[in-house]
Amino acid sequence: MSEIEYDLVVIGGGPGGYVAAIRAAQLGMKVACVEKRVTLGGTCLNVGCIPSKALLNSSEKFEEAQHELADHGVSVSGVKLDLKKMMARKDKVVADLTGGIAFLFKKNKIDHIIGSGTIEGPGVVKVKPAKGKARTLTTEDILIATGSESAPLPGVEVDEKKIVTSTGALELTKVPKHLVVIGAGYIGLEMASVWGRLGAKVTCVEFLNRITPGMDGEVAKHFQRILQKQGIEFRLGTKVTGAATNRAGVTLSLEPAKGGDAETLKCDVVLLSIGRRPYTEGLGLKAAGVETDERGFIKIDEHFRTTASGIYAIGDCVPGPMLAHKAEDEGVVCAEIIAGQSGHINYDAIPGVVYTWPEVAAVGKTEEALKEAGVEYRIGKFPFTANSRARANDLTDGFVKILADTKTDAVLGAHIIGADAGNLIHEVVAVIEFGGAAEDIARICHAHPTLNEAVKEAALAVDGRPIHM
Fold first, then answer.
1. Mean pLDDT, range 214-219, rounded to an integer
2. What is this structure's pTM?
3. How many Cα atoms are found within 13 Å in the side-chain-facing hemisphere of 369?
4. Given pLDDT bands bounded at 50, 70 and 90, which one contains residue 2?
5. Known catalytic residues?
6. CATH code for the structural domain at 163-274
């Protein structure tokens, strides 16, 4: 074997991989990051989190100009959609951020190697570029951070034109007259919101009898009602058994999930969004001795070590929530462990956010999970209709809900549906991380008038003493 070139080779340049590479370099390691895309950032920055948030923001402004500014005494006429310009702005946001990561790699002296990586043995990674000869890297340790891909559905063949994944939904060249979203999870509802605001009729078809599986049940019901008021239609308890495309669009075959008569549903575009699965194609896991579970996730121990010596894994390709920030934290901790340090992640303190309007954010346990575990808890809830800033800004949809242990008052979970929920949740995340109680939140002085006061009031409500309700 040739002389070892690197201390660590990271396969995958997404949020988990590039963050791990940077942290490892900070710790003095010589690092290479193998990524098949020319740009770094993975699915999240290139065709996921970032471009979708850019379009969500732009579509919110379009809807505000059309329907909401007049209520504030701002008269606007002749509002028109320039979809090409909106998409160009989204692309610039992506280019700026991916370029920023490339700069950070240069700053930290990390080698960005473009191509698909295959593990050929202990400490050996073969990189095959799209064009040209393959290259072999030798390293002390290997970190797999290859992320995930959209899960397929039998009978529904994706062409990224009429039947699209989230990737194709971010690149549509015109607003569909009728968009059908298969799946009512986070990604599907965000894309439904974008194209619904821009003028599409939107129908969500969900196999289960509820939207957003895993979300607190009370919040999910409230969320569905708000989305329905916005014009999104839901077909719950319904499965899609097939899809046929023609020049006019797509015809979906539907059946009740519990059995019954079949029917068809016609539309212009179908977004397939039933979840994601680990992306490990071509890595050579079996030959390298890296075991996966029945769903394809790479098996790891508490230190992110796989079943093969010197090979670690993080992010969407290992069990746990498929979230960019979860992958980032794992990347940091894994790099520190490889460097001989200690690290820890509290998976009960990882927030999740749906970036619709209003936003939905959560951390910790749901009511359903606490009931199933037999944990006694108290609920504190406060509506935004009673919050001064929400009233002033006309953002009164939703509420804050805090779950605390009956005996210890420890915060077990929090669920927020409302304006800026994705930012508001972090106060509760910090309290959970430090083992705090609802009383701790209730005793913190919150600036007035702010939306954050609703979090304090919900914490007060845990003890039955909200001030403004």
1. 97
2. 0.96
3. 13
4. low
5. 448
6. 3.50.50.60
